[in-house]
Protein: alcohol dehydrogenase
Amino acid sequence: MYKRLGSLVSHSYAHFSKLLTQKHFRFIHSEIGPTMSTTSGLVIPCKAAIAWEAGKPLVIEQVEVAPPQAMEVRIKIKYTSLCHTDLYFWEAKGQNPLFPRIFGHEAAGVVESVGEGVSDLQVGDHVLPVFTGECGDCRHCKSEESNMCDLLRINTDRGVMLNDGKSRFSISGTPINHFLGTSTFSEYTVVHSGCLAKISPLAPLDKVCILSCGISTGLGATLNVAKPKKGSTVAVFGLGAVGLAAAEGARIAGASRIIGIDLNPKRYEEAKKFGVTEFVNPKDHDRPVQEVIAEMTNGGVDRSIECTGNINAMISAFECVHDGWGVAVLVGVPNKDAVFMTKPINVLNERTLKGTFFGNYKPRTDLPSVVDMYMNKKLEVEKFITHRVPFSDINKAFEYMLKGEGLRCIISMEE
Ligand code: NAD
Ligand code: ZN
Structure:
């Protein structure tokens, strides 16, 4: 598969350079090159990784990115990374297929231009795009408890911008679908201003890009939703970046035991760096893993956080919490037809089941403070970054995730 990916990428580069007419060339160098603001209001031709079909390698091609409309912002992506949610929708096995599409939602960038009505962001601001937004006006945004904005909450099936129901990306007039309102596998992208968190200009974008989804999600799932007390026992299902961020939250909250559950034993070594103290592989047991955990913990864990997307793991995560006080939090994105089944007595026995998007953080209000946690050395981000590739090798990031290798792979747009 590697060879095939490589040849596709180099073929598309050749195709890309052929596409660059003299006019485009002059445009790119005289107008995008030196100062970003001179491209304001113009269509920008740039490179993007296009998913033409489910499960097929992305192809880097030239795409035209239209200027931002009302309440939209066009940003230059500096770094992006791959989260499992991109992979699910690219594979489109348990999700609705929508192609051609530009994936990517975990990223960091710089504002290139702003549309009408955008008053809180300016050209040059450093921003993290987020897959779910914060309009600031709806009941959810006004509630202290919710981050499920009525206008901008996650919508995995929409491929267009809200303002006019159209895409801002096209190739020779053919529209290319957006993904999660972010589409960060492109040198330039257009995002609703409510889905952009303005962050400290001092924060290194090649690191804090992973705070725009996975790490904040796992961290918030523990700190904001599960809320373990000091000395608690916490189970984390799925030891990918999201799960290990949940473990990091448990460590910060002062958990006494953090039990990691994963089908892939390669994950265990890495997980020790995140304070995971015990491991359970469901494959090693001929009875449900919730029973194994109940036995290990004298009746169940105080808190559990599910970060796999697998329905059986979700049910186990709920059933392994202690009766009377246990709280389970679902984070993984399930297959669209999955149904959660458990005996009602498990709930009557005073167990609580919760779920969260983005760790209950309000993207614009709260994300800058997560970045500050990193800047103040309260949160370690580096240990999540196991691979780096240039944009031209973006398909390698997919390969690593498919093989369950490493945690986060940073894709650098400028190499
Ligand atoms: P990842 O692929 O890096 O990690 C997932 C881990 O789960 C893997 O190590 C895998 O071996 C393990 N796993 C899979 N099935 C399992 C099972 N039945 N039992 C035990 N372990 C199992 O993925 P990630 O990027 O860390 O994302 C984790 C999940 O979180 C995904 O479902 C992703 O879509 C979801 N997610 C949700 C949100 C949200 O806001 N709710 C945000 C980001 C990601
Ligand atoms: Zn809102």
In short: The first helix runs from residue 2 to 19. The radius of gyration is 21 Å.
